[in-house]
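Batch job 17 of 40 flagged for manual review because the log was empty.
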Amino acid sequence: MKRLLTIQDISCVGQCSATVALPLVSACGVECAVLPSAVLSNHTGGFPSWTFRDLTGELPLVEAKWNELGLRFDAFLTGYVCEPQIDPILSILSTCAAPGALRIVDPVMADGGRLYAGFGPDFPAKMARLCAGADYILPNLTEAAFLLGRPPVLEGYGRAYIEDTVAGLHDLGAKNVVLTGVSFEPDLLGTAVSDGTAIRYDFNPRLARTSHGTGDVFSSVFAGALLRGLGAPAAAALAADIVCAAIQATPPDHWYGVAFEQTIPLLATRLPPA
């Protein structure tokens, strides 16, 4: 059984970040270790207040202990992290990697044309350093534009724009790109998956509801499915299907996340044999 380390925050309530990654990666038959970058009482989307404990100082201490114990990881999945954590994380990805370990980076920092609260205009350049050595990066359209130092374009684009964006992300050093939020038709939403030689598109019907945590569901299923043996296009398609199923399973008054727990039986049926 392969071992994946996810490095991101723990929002104790809110169905996002590590509380999504741990069950979904585990459901893929992959051991999921967790290194929290911070602990929050609840996530920051829609709640009026929250507590926050920064764990940046713990990262090098944990790394040193793992190296002392000889612990290694077959893959890494990074999510929401802050600027001071980029260098410690890069060190962990280097010293704690098993031979051939995969680096999967979800550059969580923006959506809807804007950076998330707390990130300054220079943060995308810092995140680009984490993306530079990644085997897979999973930006949405807004994050991709900021990584490239460009203004986000969220509608009215064509395939030429997506191809140029993907090429720019490869130029940053990412080996494979999974660009999310791609849409050429109003009723369809999907992904563009590139290995540097060809782009493969996958689309699902666009759902009217906007929900917190769907990006974390996507990245978690993608990473787990990839380690289970699926190729990147198939893993991305499965991840998108699970996101859609999770949104559809979520009651209307459940506003702070999606009911991804309801989709775990479906996920199990869609994975190849162990």
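Reviewer: the log was empty due to a logging misconfiguration, but the result itself is present. The two ends are 9 Å apart (CA to CA). Unflagging and moving on to job 18.
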